[in-house]
Design brief:
The chain is α/β, with parallel strands linked by helices and 224 residues long. Helix 4 (87-90) links the parallel strand 3 and strand 4 (96-99). Helix content is 37%, strand content 17%. Strands 1-2-3-4-5-6-7-8 form an 8-stranded parallel beta barrel, surrounded by 5 helices. The N and C termini lie close together (10 Å). Helix 1 (14-30) packs parallel to helix 3 (54-61). The protein is built from 9 helices and 8 strands. Bound molecules: 2-phosphoglycolic acid (PGA). 2-phosphoglycolic acid binds at residues 7, 150, 155-156, 184-187, 205-209. 2-phosphoglycolic acid is lined by residues 7, 150, 155-156, 184-187, 205-209.
Length: 224
């Protein structure tokens, strides 16, 4: 199984998201090969919009086999936590949640301990966490079965890390064989092939190149 995950971050308006979904749905219906790969469980495409856009994206793409994730999840269980979006609240809406993204670790001072609480909230509510780690200093939690290695210098910079260095890090991290190992950091349609050719990387967490439906769709075609 190959994973292709769109992390829209805080880049799009609702109108942009609507346009994205319309074009992506059209591309899926015009190109059966991507849909077949999804149906054959060879490819999982997961879209992670901002929370308020999730129902719209889900309502329009889930019947095409697209899965939905959030970009974060609360570390709280449930209760009087104004403004929090909990796994308990989201459990019937999303299948995945990105946790520990470096932008949250840096801009929101998220600690490894909080990231662990988020993973446990996901686990308790049947949501699959996608754990982002920057390097060997971030803790790999055994409960997270999907790990996205995202070196900070490569994120949003256009400076993707070489496939050889990604594989080297995979070894250093001692990723268990049963764990899904993803790479993220300036992946685009011009560089994705060097990673797929290794056979060691199970998919991609994509920011910038996920913002345009046609570009993101061409990444899916590279994974067939
Ligand atoms: P990028 O973002 O593809 O723009 O580098 C990846 C990420 O931050 O998940």
């Amino acid at each position: 199984m190959q994973y292709l995950i769109a992390n829209w971050k805080a880049e799009l308006t609702y109108a942009d998201a609507q346009e994205w979904v319309t074009l992506f749905a059209r591309l899926l219906s015009e190109n059966n090969s991507v849909t077949s790969a999804i149906q054959d469980k060879k490819l999982s495409i997961i879209v992670c919009p901002p929370y308020p856009f999730i129902p719209f994206v889900k309502d329009n793409l889930q019947n095409k086999g697209i899965l939905i994730g959030s970009q974060d999840i609360s570390s709280k269980e449930r209760g009087k936590y104004t403004g929090e979006v909990t796994a308990h609240a989201m459990k019937d809406i999303i299948q995945y949640a990105i946790v520990g993204h470096s932008e949250r670790r840096v801009h929101c001072n998220e600690t490894d301990a909080q990231v662990f609480e988020k993973i446990m909230q996901c686990a308790n509510n049947a949501i699959q966490p996608i754990l982002c780690i920057r390097d060997t200093n971030d803790t790999l939690h055994a409960e997270a079965k999907i790990i996205a290695y995202e070196p900070v210098a490569a994120i949003g910079s256009g400076q993707n890390e070489d496939a050889a260095a990604v594989i080297e890090m995979k070894k250093k991290l001692m990723i268990p064989a049963a764990t899904t190992f993803l790479y993220g950091g300036s992946v685009d349609r011009d560089n994705i092939r060097q990673y797929t050719q290794t056979g060691e990387i199970h998919g991609f967490l994509v920011g910038s190149a996920s913002l345009h439906a046609d570009h993101f769709f061409s990444l899916a075609q590279e994974l067939l």
